Fold this sequence. Notes:
Blueprint: H1 8-24, H2 38-55, H3 59-71, H4 73-76, E1 77-82, E2 86-91, H5 99-117, H6 127-139
Antiparallel strand pairs: 1-2
Helix pairs in contact: 2-3, 2-5, 2-6, 3-5
Amino acid sequence: MLYDLHNELHRTAFKARCNALYSKGGVVELTDRSRRTSAQNRYLHLILGWFAVEYGETVQYVKEEYFKRLVNSDLFVVRRPDRWMGEVTVLRSTRDLTSSELSQAVDRFRDWSSREAGIYLPEANEDGMLRAIEVEVNRMSRYI
Length: 144
């Protein structure tokens, strides 16, 4: 069960659940599903845009087909039952990833891009190159 601890109702339910598990004893797991930061989000879309410009494809296609399906299928591709169609395959949103999961996905994509497509994608701390890429991606935005 997930609880949003910004929501007072969820906070109360979380405390009750924790107290009940504490009383029972046993083994439990508690994780923090911190979401990605806005800086991570901006960086991700910048490198996806740069790949799209360099490869000649749309950003949406690059994000869904290469970033999610090809390189990071274990994080994004989910099979679930559908009432009328049986089992279907859907893609998770990047907003559902934790900060560490998104970092892992970006690292994999950067490695794959360099190795397989021959396109260098800068690291998040390469400010000068990222600024230049941002200008070029904005110039080409109507095409990607």
